[in-house]
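Protocol step 4 of 5: obtain the predicted structure for the target chain.
Materials: sequence only (see below). No template structures provided, no constraints applied. The aim of this step is simply to have a reference model before the mutagenesis design in step 5. Sequence pasted as it appears in the construct record:
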Amino acid sequence: MSIRRKLILALLSLLVVIVTVFTAYFYFLESHAIRSEIVKRGNAVTKIFTQMAATYIFEMDYATVLDNANELVESGDVASVAVIDLRGRPLTDTRGLGKGPYVLDEFYQEAILSKTRNHRQIRKEKENFLEFVHPVTSVGKTICLLKMDISLKAAEDRLIEVAKKTVILSVCLIAAALILAVFLSKLLADPIKKLLRGTHEISGGNLDYRIEIRSQDEIGELAYNFNRMSKSLKEQIARLRKAEEKYRSIFENAVEGLFQIGADGSFISANPSLARIMGFSSPEQLLVLPNSLDQHYTNPDDPDMLRQILLSKERVSGFEALLRRRNGSVFLASLSVRAVLDSQGRLLCYEGSLVDTTEHDEEAQKELEASFRAHLSLTQAHEKLETQNATLIKANGKIMDSIRYARMIQTSILTPNLNILETIFPESFIIWMPKDVVSGDFIFSHVFEDGVLIVVADCTGHGVPGALMTMIVSSGLTKIVKDGECRNPAQILGKLNAFVKTSLHQDTRDALSDDGLDAAICFIRPPFSGQGKGEKDDFGSVVFAGARLPLFYIIKDEVFFIRGDRKSIGYKRSDLNFVFSNHTVPVQEKTAFYMLTDGFSDQLGGKKRYGFGRNRFISLLKTSGKKPFEKQKDVFLHAFKDYKGGEERQDDVTVVGFGCG
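Step 4 output (structure tokens):
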């Protein structure tokens, strides 16, 4: 489709839409005005007639009312008038009294109750009417209804006449719009055709073609710029041809051997000097496949070495290698090569120069032999390096086997604690994700006669150092909790602080290490989930103490947060006399608790690489807190993975969630 037709179609479509909308809007306004006029007149007539007939109705002189009603029907578009009692029986009716009672539906009932005029549109005998009802009251009480029907036939005929005139006007406007669209399309399309022909001429190689458009508008400016562009293009092509001739002359007459080779070493182009150096009579003989530069190296490792250097530097100057000519003679060559990449960084080819640096005297021959021996030494050194690399790989395998065994030991210690939590708290979940093979995060639990203790600890670092710290912490908690029967969270943190400091001798000035941990401890007093209610709706309580780790809990869809004390455990700077604080939370029905290390909240991610953060974690609790705990675990893992995106994991991640009440 030509641009002229597109322009005509676009302008015509736009104007048709505008005219259609205008026509519909005008018809709607006219219809609304006519209906409003009829409603206003009907209300006025009903009111006047009611006031006039009220006295006769009170006196039960329905004959006089009927006479006045018949006069009203004969004088205009009023179709019928009737007076109806509150049972629907007609007291007087211009249609006659033999047609039975009226059904007093919601429309009539509303008029009776509100004691105000009411109207609606009805259809009977294939004709539309506006039905008006006016209550007749006595001593503030409705005693009967005045019903009047006004025919809409005259209004509908008037609307049909308006619609005809509107359609005629619309047709005239569309015809005028079509004429305008044709005129504008011709005015705009002809210059565009000239521009299009100009582009065809330029693409066909006719750089002398010029466009003659003398208008002082945007199209004229476009034509002027087009002519300038074609002139500039012609000048640039001329300069490029001169540069190409100059480059070709340099390429053909250069003393150095110039070349382009593909990624596989095959020749793409070569100058006569390169052919002469390599022992060929012409460059064309070098370009015959499968001939390549790689097959001329005396040391087969040299091409790969050169490519490895190019991968890191993209350009190499003075790379020396022993090459073999076509007749089998060896010479020392100095190569300068660069990698040619496309806009996306993909290799297109290599290009560079080659110089024969061999002299024909005795001293140069000795240097050639020395270079050859050096190449052999490098080859032997490379083989030795590969042997050492194999030894390192074997040693690394043994180390990884030891670390995997350490993970098995750590898991075997952790598993009973996890089993206790899953048994005591059926409504619960545990997320334990080490950053490395072994973890610095640790979960400890113990069951007393009067409650359950849960400990979540984040030891110094992650990997092997963190795992070693978890062994020390596990030993300390066993001694304090299981052997010492201590169940007070704040006291446990204080005793654990002393245990770690003395175990690592960090309570002395000349201590070599400075390691420790952050921890959160909860003691849950029953009854709790799985144990039933206590007396008087007692759901038990949770006593919490934290060393830099928090406790979150949800009661009735509201999230609460308790910050741990701003003291860590076991470090040189940790105060042995510091007293940690207990926080008691009375458990209500369906209360959920969450303990976690900072690996979740500190994870970097998102568009700005911020940490996940406490506020985002609270929002996550609000959206997922109502779900079953096994579903919550999936929600937490999915949210963590989405936020992390392509970022590296920052630390070990541990989250423990359980429900009480």
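Step 4 remarks: The CA atoms of residues 267 and 287 lie 5 Å apart. The domain at 3-158 is CATH 3.30.450.20 (Beta-Lactamase).
Proceed to step 5.
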